[in-house]
Amino acid sequence: MDTDTRSTSGRLLLAAKTTLWISLTVFWIAVAVIVLPELTAGSRVAAARGTLLDTLQQQRQSRVIAMIHRQETVSLFGVPVSSFIDIEDSEAVLRAIRLTPADQPIDFVLHTPGGLVLAAEQIAHALAEHRGKVTVFVPHYAMSGGTLLALTADEIVMDPNAVLGPVDPQIDSRPAASIVKLLSVKPPAQISDDMLILADMAQKARVQVATFVEGILLKHLPKERAAALAVALSEGRWTHDFPITVEGARALGLPVSTAMPPLIYELMDLYPQAGVGRPSVMYVPLHGGGDSSDPSSGQVSAP
Predict the structure, then answer these.
(1) Quick check: 229 and 248 in contact, CB under 8 A?
(2) Domain range holding 53?
(3) Is the distance from CB of 269 to CB of 288 less than 8 angstroms?
(4) Residue 27: predicted pLDDT
(5) What is the pLDDT of residues 229-273, one digit of tens each?
(6) pTM of the prediction?
(7) Nearest Cα residue to 251 out of 234, 219, 228
(8) Helix axis angle, 193-217 relative to 223-234, nearest 10°?
(9) Does residue 197 lie within any of the structural domains?
């Protein structure tokens, strides 16, 4: 190979390396342009939520806890995201309640389709046991496990168009009441072993949920009324997504008000859609309260 050929090959190799370097640089710049605004926007929104929660907390002299689950499926790069009450939520809420003085009022901002029975019952039990006044705010909807939490409140504040829902248990995404009904319309010999097992689980689940609901209602209602309301909400007389309006909730004997503070709506505006890393439970320290001894207090979230 002569000198000219080697020189030409060297120039071509250098040009290829330069082109590759430029392409990689452009690629990473494009990634940064797409990703960085998402990350910084998330930080700004989280800060705005914390500030608003603190303002509401100061105005009402309470512990304010927000559990807001969005059902949109839009997030970074289009990855679907949906939210519901889970164990991470119950851990965060229980911690917030534990850090709250026993006589301090709790304001619970609730927007959820429901979720795991265990997680919802853990939160409901802690709210029912809290000595201070518990107010649950429902700006749009609190279905299923969300309604279970609302039942613990001394006062439920609903938007005039907000709804609650039945708390009847679901087994493998099937209504427990419908599974049990199967036993009355078909002989056991015509029902699969799997469905017979589900029917047994469904019957136990109905009794367990009704018993639990009655227990938390006893904080506010006499035993007969608590038992009747627990059965009405858990026996499956309605479909699981049946909307219980303000009027319907009052007819059931629930302590419902429609005096929604404007700041609750402002808080909802800060949750426009689901996103990666979005916290579903947040709270901020109580000024002069019991959080100062906890070095990690300030903001707690469950992703």
Answers:
(1) no
(2) 3-165+243-282
(3) no
(4) 77
(5) 999 999 999 999 999 999 999 999 999 999 999 999 999 999 875
(6) 0.77
(7) 228
(8) 150
(9) no
* Residue 189 in domain: no
Helix (H) / strand (E) element for 205: namely helix 193-217
Quick one: which H or E segment has residue 251? helix 246-251
Identify whether 17 is part of a domain: yes
Q: Which residues contact 229 (CB under 8 A, 6 or more apart)?
A: 213, 214, 217, 221, 252, 253
Question: In CATH, what number is assigned to the domain containing residue 130?
Answer: 3.90.226
Rounded to whole angstroms, the Cα distance separating 117 from 303 reads 19
Go through the chain and tell me how many residues it has.
Answer: 303
Question: DSSP assignment, residue 281?
Answer: E
Q: Is residue 277 part of a domain?
A: yes
8-31 confidence digits (pLDDT tens)? 666 667 777 778 778 778 877 776
Given a cut of 70, the residues of the chain with pLDDT beneath it are 1-12, 31-42, 71-82, 273-279, 288-303
Report DSSP letters for 86-110, one per residue.
Answer: -HHHHHHHHHHHHTS-TTS-EEEEE
